[in-house]
């Protein structure tokens, strides 16, 4: 079976300095993968390259997504093709409601796929369905994007955006950083609710607690720009008990 995402021999840097070094990663449809690693291992760099951050330079290697060369696609084209990223620190957008943001994003994705935009009635129906699925209050969608939000509300908002955009590949870049128990459960419940055989998730994290709630299919350890180990949840337990130095190639 052809992987949804296949990264081969990827070397990436910034300002001439290599960060990712000959990295290989394959994710099949329906799988949840977790990448763990110490600070400065290259975890967020990987997320940035997948979503098309222009300040990173690809020195060598390839990324194939849905059979397409991802490196030739603009950031907006990647989003339209079903790649979504939940940020560690979501930005505030004063004056823009969540409803307005999502209407623009959903219709842009439909237009890119040569489909008709949703009518106001169709859009409101979709919003109500997704909010009910995630057990959200109806007044949430009227608020300005992340303005005055608690940490948990910001994460709930991002999971709602993910539900509305229905991505094929979701990337959670240290989205659990600094969250309390309740906010962490919001993220995990959202990911688990939206899980399907056609969609995949890449979770980038330092911590065991989120992975205990989501249960990834595959766990990778990234260190010094390379994936040095791949396995199951036993890797998470080993890191929790013995630290990253206990993981060897």
Considering the chains and any ligands shown, give keywords for the structure.
six-stranded mixed beta sheet; 8 helices; globular; 12 strands; four-stranded antiparallel beta sheet; Rossmann fold; 249 residues; alpha/beta
List the helices and strands and how they pair.
Layout: E1 5-14, E2 17-27, E3 32-36, H1 43-51, E4 57-65, E5 68-69, H2 75-80, E6 83-86, E7 93-97, H3 98-112, H4 120-133, E8 144-145, H5 151-165, E9 169-173, H6 181-194, E10 200-205, H7 208-214, E11 218-223, E12 226-231, H8 233-242
Parallel strand pairs: 3-10, 3-11, 6-9, 9-10
Antiparallel strand pairs: 1-2, 1-4, 4-5, 7-8, 11-12
Helix pairs in contact: 3-5, 5-6, 6-7
Give the helices and strands as they follow along the chain: EEEHEEHEEHHEHEHEHEEH
Number of DSSP strand runs: 12
Uncertain residue ranges? none
* CATH fold type: Rossmann fold
In percent terms, what proportion of residues is strand?
Answer: 25-35%
By CATH's scheme, which homologous superfamily applies? P-loop containing nucleotide triphosphate hydrolases
In helices, the fraction of residues equals 25-40%
Radius of gyration: 18 Å
Name the structural class: alpha/beta
Total helix count? 8
**Please, what is the average pLDDT?**
90
Query: Architecture, according to CATH?
Result: 3-Layer(aba) Sandwich
CATH class reads Alpha Beta
- Shape type: globular
Give the strand order, joined by hyphens, for the main sheet: 6-9-10-3-11-12
How many independent structural domains?
1
């Amino acid at each position: 079976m052809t992987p949804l995402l296949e990264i081969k021999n990827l070397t990436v840097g910034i300002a001439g300095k290599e960060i990712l070094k000959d990295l290989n990663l394959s994710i099949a449809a329906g799988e949840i993968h977790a990448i763990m690693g110490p600070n400065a291992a290259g975890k967020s760099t990987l997320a940035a390259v997948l979503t098309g951050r222009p300040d990173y330079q690809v020195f060598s290697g390839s990324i194939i997504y849905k059979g397409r060369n991802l490196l030739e696609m603009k950031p907006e084209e990647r989003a339209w093709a079903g790649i979504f990223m939940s940020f560690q620190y979501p930005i505030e957008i004063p004056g823009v409601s969540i409803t307005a943001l999502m209407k623009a994003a959903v219709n842009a994705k439909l237009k890119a796929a040569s489909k008709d935009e949703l009518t106001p009635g169709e859009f409101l129906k979709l919003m109500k369905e997704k909010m009910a699925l995630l057990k959200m209050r109806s007044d949430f969608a009227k608020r300005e994007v992340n303005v005055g939000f608690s940490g948990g509300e910001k994460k709930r908002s991002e999971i709602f955006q993910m539900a509305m955009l229905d991505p094929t590949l979701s990337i959670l870049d240290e989205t659990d950083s600094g969250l309390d128990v309740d906010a962490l459960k919001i993220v995990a419940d959202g990911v688990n609710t939206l899980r399907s055989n056609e969609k995949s998730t890449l979770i980038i994290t330092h911590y065991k607690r989120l992975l205990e709630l989501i249960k990834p299919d595959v766990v990778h350890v990234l260190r010094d720009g390379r994936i040095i180990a791949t396995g199951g949840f036993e890797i998470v337990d080993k890191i929790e008990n013995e630290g990253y130095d206990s993981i060897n190639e």
